[in-house]
Amino acid sequence: MDSPAESKTERKPKLSERVANAIREQVLKGEIPPGDKLPTESRMSAFYGVSRTVVREAIATLAADGLVEARQGAGVFVKDHPTLAFGSISLDVGNRISHALNVIEVRMGLEIESAGLAALRRNAAQEAQIQEAFFEFERLLERGEATGKRDFAFHRAIAVATNNPYYVEVLDALGMRAIPCDIASPWGTDSILSREYQEGLQREHLAILKAISASDPDAARAAMRAHLTASQERYRVRLSGQQAKWILDTTTRRD
To answer: How far lies 131's CA from each of 161, 174, 209, in Å?
Structure first.
C-alpha cells in the first residue's frame, strides 16, 4: 500500500518557489532585462510579503538555474546568457512527470556523447571532480539527505570534462530541471526518492564513472545511455501510476 506521501499527486509550492517563479517569469518576459540588477532583499521582501530568508532561497534557486548571479558588494544581476530561453521550460510545470520525460530526452541527446568525450578528454582534476560528486552523493544518501544537487553536480562534472563549454552551457540552462526528482526541485516528485531508488542511481553512476576512469568512450556512452534509459522507464512507470490513479478517482467520484 502506498504511503500518504507516495499517493500525493500535487504539492503546494513553498513560498520561496513562488517568489522564484514570479521573478523568473519577469526575467523571461524581458521585464527585467539581462544585465539589470534585481531589487534589494528588503525591497523584494516587502513587495512579495515574505521574509528575507525566503527571498534568499528564491535567489539561490534562480542562481542554480543560471538566470541570475550575485556579485560581491554589488548585488544580484540577471545574467546576460544566450540560453535564458531554456528557462521557460520550468514555468508552470508543476509536478507533471511528462515534462520530466521531455527533459530526459534532451539529456540523452546531450549526455551520452558527453560521457564518451569525457572518457577521452578529461584531465586528472576533472576526473577528481566527477569522483567527488559521486562520493558526496553517497555521503548524503547515508545521512538520508536530498541528493539532487550532487546528482546534478555529477552530470555537470562530466560535461566539464568534455572540455567543450557548450555541453556545460546547455546543461546549466536546464539547471536543476535536469534532475526533476530532487526533493528541492519545483517538480514535486520527491515521493519517488526512496533509498532503493537512489541506490539504483548510484549503481548506474558507478558504471559511468568506471568507464570514464578507464578511458573507454564506448563503455561510457553505453553506461550513460543505460542510466538515462532507466530513468525514462522509472518516470514512465510513475506517470502510468498517476494516470491509473486519476482514472480510479474519476470513476469513484462518478459512481
So the answer is: 12, 22, 7
